[in-house]
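Can you give me the bound-state structure? Components:
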Amino acid sequence: MAWANEISSCIALGLLQGILGTALFLTLRILNFTDLTCEGSFVFGACVSSMLLGRGYGVCVSVATAFAAGGVAGLCTGVLNIVFKVKDILAGILVAFMLYSINLRIMGVPNITLPENVAIGGVYLFGFGIVCILGYLLTTDWGLAFRSVGQNQALAKTTGVSVKKMTFIGLALSNALIGLSGSLFSINQGFCDIGSGTGLLIVGLASVIIGEKVLPFRSFYLKILGCFFGSVLYRFFICLALNLDSSQLKPSDVNIVTGLLILAFMSSKITFRRRLTCPSS
Amino acid sequence: MSLQLNNVSMQFNERKILDGLNLSVAEGEFVVIVGENGAGKSTLFNLIAGLEKPTAGQIVRNFSKITRVMQDPKAGTLENMTIKENLAFAYKRASRRGWLPCISKARLSLFREKLTLLNMKLENRLNDLVENLSGGQRQALAFAMAILVDYDMILLDEVTAALNPESAQNLMELINKTVRDNKKTCLMITHNPDHKKYGDRVLTLENGRLLSA
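Here's the bound-state model for the whole set.
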């Protein structure tokens, strides 16, 4: 019974963090923008929704506001990068750094407990909606232009694509999804903590890498699904490692387990990509 | 005249790249431009394409649609996309990109038709990633992308520089045939003396001015 609970917990957390993985897939893989805002925007989303829930607002309003708040954080990174010409990595770090103070201002205290009985069952349907909408968007004419920005900015510019606009949209959308993920995560856990964003970049990265290895297909629907699948699988691996009596691992060993897991997947040859992309003729 | 440059100058910091340059290109004319490295040939193309503004002088463009093929085959294509996605990307050049799927039956048949002109059997490899193509095939694809939608003038910036002699020759024959058959205006920069023969006129860019070769 304890294992059944662990499994359901892994799936729930995995799906919630799959949204984070999808967001990182958008910036790191599609837009080719090393956005480190995520650790700030995740907590920003969690703080905003927690405060609204604490003040009696409904889940939908709280989650939607967290989504918008994350988007604003992404836009700030975009402004630093595009308007003030700050390098992508530094722009993200700066925004995440500043968000720490803003998050503390919002909450007033380092952590707060959320009201009980907040149902987020609809989140799974929402996750499915994200896969469908993003998967479709990336295969449209607009999606091609968006993808071109990450691959060849010079060509994108000469073909009439606004690189700046696309970068803004990508960062806003990605961080909005991260804010949403943070919001749902805090609701699921029943509390919001100022330090809950620490190490999340690695968790998101693990989701993307595991997803790409396990579902190495070209379809964007499957790539995004892979982020969710990778996230759930990552949770399973961590849970398995920490719960196996023979492993002698403690919860504090989660970082080294995560790091080794990412390295193992990155160096593994379990990919069918080459076979799938070979010339047919 | 399709294009006219009157006393055009271009200066970067203290360095004058173009100095009172004059050029007239008639509609349907094929002009070859040669010159040393750093002579300002690519800058001249950037000015003609409207990507940069001259520091002095006037550029009169009597055409609306211009297209360009770059020197590096990688620069003209999106290597992590398939051939059909590259063509779909080029298909919407300078026009509004909507929310409809980028690949449709009508578009696929147009792509096949254009790729058949290349004579490289790429029309059977629409689902292949561009990263799997050779340099020559990539440059040919870049050319197909450039001519996919209607254009008035094409700028070719050392398009054969990265190709082996055989691929370069094939691509030049293809370009020459396509441009002549469709009576399009073409400006080509080249370092290859064998390719001067394709032009109606050959001009040398020297000391910031164009001289007849």
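A couple of observations. Strands of chain A lie at 111-113, 191-193. The first strand of chain A starts at residue 111 and ends at 113.
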